[in-house]
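Annex B, item 7. Sequence and structure tokens for protein A, then protein B.
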Amino acid sequence: MVRLFHIQPQVPALPLDLWRAKRFDRGVGMTDKRRIMTRRIFSGGEFEAKIGYCRAVVAGGFVHVAGTVGQGDTVTDQCRAALATIEGALREAGCTMADVVRVNYYLPDRAEFEPCWPILSEVFGDAPPAATMIECGLIDDKYRIEIEVTACLPG
């Protein structure tokens, strides 16, 4: 006997009516209501204009903050600077670091991640997000850590 199962595609974090409208509205691709719900936040960073992205996008009840690097001589200095930039973007979106639900850390050398742990523990405190650390190359060799977060809008 062969059993067939219908697998429901993963539905993005949108109300079902908006997801259906986007999926089936082939002419526009997105409803006007959905466009209004999207807000972009720019920080004026040097790569925003060069690459064509913004610091954060507020959409569907979430704040998606782009990968962020910081200035400094040490990985811990860069970590603190990146977190300060992220905190500013979240504040502009109406969030705090306590609203962060997901964080990705990118480092060219995974051995440099451990010195950042106390900083991250201090910043995220009693509301630690789900986290991933990936060892990879960054946009410039001078950068030693890049941090990307997703936060839930309060309320």
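Protein B:
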Amino acid sequence: MNAKRESWGQGGPEATCDRETTMTCADGLERRFTLSRRAARPSLGALLALSLAAAVVGCTRAAGDSAARRTGDAADKPFVAASGAAMEQMMKAMAIRPSGDVDRDFVALMVPHHESAIAMAQAELRYGKNEQLRRMAQEIVVKQQQEIAAMRLALR
């Protein structure tokens, strides 16, 4: 997958408006991502996290779209939509303004990551049929919730 084109709202890269990126997955399907700019210069870590998340969402959604077209069965569309929405929400939430406190920034990036994992596991529980994967999804929900609570507690 590669970034096909990138555009900024009015004012160029220094503006505080949205950033839009269109990416092309290996199978040729394009996905557009918009990142709300919370700071004129987001941290390198936040941009790298966004790029990784966009890559995962793009390929995951494209693979799901491809599978739906190949089988002619729309049964996976709700799962693909739920997972894609979770990833897009994570991307937006991870676009933080650095606080100057590495520990707080780490938690600020990891909590949305874990929340996205929980949402995707819940989609598996809602739509999946494989009992082994459903058990794993339930474990993911519990463990990720525990880790979120532990990270927040560690900052007190």
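Comment on protein B: The two ends are 41 Å apart (CA to CA).
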